[in-house]
Every structure is written in C-alpha cells, then in structure tokens.
User: Fold Response regulator from Novosphingobium decolorationis.
Amino acid sequence: MVETPPDIQTPSDLVECTVLIVDDDDVAIEGVLRSFRRHDVTCPTLTAGDGREALAILRGEHPTKHISPPYIILLDLNMPDMDGFQFLQALRNDPALQRSVVFVLSTSARDQDMRRAYDEHVAGYMVKSAVGPQFARLADFIRKYTGTQNLPRDAL
Assistant:
C-alpha cells in the first residue's frame, strides 16, 4: 500500500482557484468566459479593465470585487491607464503578490514582448490568434492547469 506523505496534496485536496482576467476588451473577455462555460471550466472568474483595477482587487482595495488565493491571472498587455507590463512590475515588486501566477493572453506575437513578459516571470505567454477559435484551447489549458497544479493558498 502506497501512502501519500502528509505534505503532498492529492487531486481531491486541490482547491478551486479563481481566474482573474485583466483585459480592456469586452469582446475578448466574453469570448474567454463563453469558452470556459462550454468547456466545463468551473473556476470562479473576476475581471479587471486594466492593471490598476487588477492591483486594487488583488490588494483587497477594490470596493466591490474581492479575490482570495489560490488564483491565476490572465493578463492582456495592451491596456489603457496601466498596461500589462506596468502591472507585472508592480505585482513583482509587491511582497504580498510577487508569487502570483500570471499567464499573458495578448494580441502581440512580438518576440520583444514575449521576452519582456518572461523577464517578469510569467508562467506562460499565449497569443490570442494562436489560442484558437472561441478560446477553446485556452479553456482546456486552464481546466487542466487548475486541476493539476498546487497554487499558494495565502499571501506570504
């Protein structure tokens, strides 16, 4: 009989994580949400229109939107007010948020943007046009990722 060490989580121990979608494009957000529904991604979701709103949510400073770990962030790069790169820099400089798992979901396929994002320790970089029609591949990826990964349950 094989016993699971007490410090290793089994799939039944995995806590459903929230997906924070940071994007100013309502059509893209709706596409992601529709794809999640169609492909049985059961994670709760929250949306933010730019990096500044996302930081307010993550820091517990937003008046109506609240999030608790575990969570992952789907981040667009091109947004008004605070873009994705500015958001990543602020996130990585915040001791309470620096370990946040971020996947970039962008229209940009430029190597320069990908390198810059990975320099900010993103977990992955997806180009919206390569993700596929209706974001089906994204939904499948998120379902598998959140169903198999152990994410931090609290800040620090």
Remarks:
- The CA atoms of residues 24 and 49 lie 4 Å apart.
- The chain is about 35% helix and 15% strand.
